[in-house]
Amino acid sequence: MLLTMLRGKIHRATVRETNLNYVGSITIDEALLEAADILPGEKVQVVNINNGARLETYTIAGPRESGIVALNGAAARLGEPGDKIIIIAYALVPYQEARGFRPRIVVVDENNRAVEVKREEVWGPC
């Protein structure tokens, strides 16, 4: 059996731009993608803390150390510059490995710079 587990997360990133006329996706600073171990083109879930919107899209690497986080295409309707979002990547993990699986969590500051990168235990007391 495979379980869908949190694999990587960029926590409380700030949307810098929206571009409704772009073909789609979310553009993320290449350094943040690497810190969270999320690949360009990988499917992610984006959760908007400000308005509760959730969407799935794929990532595009933006310029390294630029702090760019941009909602593109239809996703641009689900957020505004200044909104705080969480970007989440998942993985299918065999059940036997799931309890010990530790995702990479990247906490960012208001300029979308990584201030903490950690492997976090997601299982609480059972």
Automatic annotation (TrEMBL):
Entry's Gene Ontology molecular function annotations: aspartate 1-decarboxylase activity
Identification of the protein by name: Aspartate 1-decarboxylase
Modification Pyruvic acid (Ser), positions: S25
Domain of life: Bacteria
Entry-linked PANTHER family: ASPARTATE 1-DECARBOXYLASE
Cross-referenced SUPFAM superfamilies: ADC-like
Biological role: Catalyzes the pyruvoyl-dependent decarboxylation of aspartate to produce beta-alanine.
Record gene name: panD
EC number: 4.1.1.11
Positions annotated as active site in the UniProt record: S25, Y58
Bound cofactor: record note: Binds 1 pyruvoyl group covalently per subunit.
Annotated NCBIfam families: panD (TIGR00223)
Reported cofactor(s): pyruvate
Positions with a binding annotation for substrate: T57, G73, A74, A75
Keywords: Autocatalytic cleavage, Cytoplasm, Decarboxylase, Lyase, Pantothenate biosynthesis, Pyruvate, Schiff base, Zymogen
The species this protein was found in: Thermodesulfitimonas autotrophica
Protein family (similarity comment): Belongs to the PanD family.
BP term (GO), one: pantothenate biosynthetic process
Lineage of source species: Bacteria, Bacillati, Bacillota, Clostridia, Thermoanaerobacterales
Reaction(s) catalysed by this chain's protein: L-aspartate + H(+) = beta-alanine + CO2
GO cellular component terms attached to this protein's record: cytosol
